[in-house]
């Protein structure tokens, strides 16, 4: 994937919006 974030940096997290995946732990760190 390519992300264009010229004015934003830091530590974030991603997660699924599908309830069954979220309950199963589909989430994690995302460092820009």
UniProtKB/TrEMBL annotation:
UniProt KW keywords: Metal-binding
InterPro entries (alphabetical): Cu-oxidase-like_N (IPR011707), Cu_oxidase_CS (IPR033138), Cupredoxin (IPR008972)
PROSITE patterns given in the database record: MULTICOPPER_OXIDASE1 (PS00079)
SUPFAM superfamilies: Cupredoxins (SSF49503)
Domain Plastocyanin-like: 1-32
Residue runs in coiled coils: none
GO molecular function, one term: copper ion binding
Taxonomic superkingdom: Eukaryota
Family of the protein in this entry: Belongs to the multicopper oxidase family.
Protein's name in the database: Laccase
């Amino acid at each position: 994937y390519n992300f264009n974030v010229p004015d934003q940096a830091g530590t974030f997290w991603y997660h699924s919006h599908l309830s069954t995946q979220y309950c199963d732990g589909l989430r994690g760190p995302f460092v820009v």
